[in-house]
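Question (not urgent): is this output format expected?
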Amino acid sequence: MIQKKRLELILEELKMRGTLSLKEIVTLTGSSRDTARRDIVKLAQNNAIDRTYGGISLPNTFSRLDEYLERTEDLSAEKDILAKTASNLVKDNSHIFLDISTTVSCIPRHIRPYENVIATTNSLDITDQLLRNTKCKTKILGGTVDPIKRNVVGTKPMLELDSFIFDVAFMSAAGITTSGIYYAYDEDIDFKKKIRKQSKLVVLLIDNTKIGLSHNYKGLDFEDIDFLVVESRLPDDLERTISDSNVSIINSKWVQT
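Got this back:
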């Protein structure tokens, strides 16, 4: 299929769905991953799409899901407060997991100087923060490095998780509604569920822009998390749904005051 035809096909599908992952573009066009990437570059050069950290979207559809290093500057004060609040759940002699997230990446700055905490992550940037700011014994999962999301991906980190039992896992999400917890890309789902399976407690950190927002894939139910850390009061229906699922809601404003 010539490039013009592929681009037309991609844009037609994108108009119907709003977003497409790289994997979905490969399946749609029957092309290689390298060819799909070149098609994405062409569309981006013509301002026909926005590039996200796993594929493409209609312009402005995922304005807050751009490349990881750019997102670290977005809402940094609020994210730091959420992370500081969540860090109180880290105890000495515990094994914690820090999932890839610009909010979770703030947690290492606030972990108390415990000598016997083991911290595992799949994020290059969180690994760096752990080494710079904590006394934790730091582990990073093995695998292929994704240069955009700056984390390790593939089957190897999934298999490696079988070797760990975490006392607490810290995670974030692309959106949260009364229906559940959402992620932008299908390749995230199995990994999040695996973390849940290997963890005694799961702590979800959600900034205000994610509340009431759904995305392409529902990854977790509220029964899958134990604590929800937020920065402000939730809508009544969402708070009721979460509380009915026996999730403890921690409001960072109440904690800070």
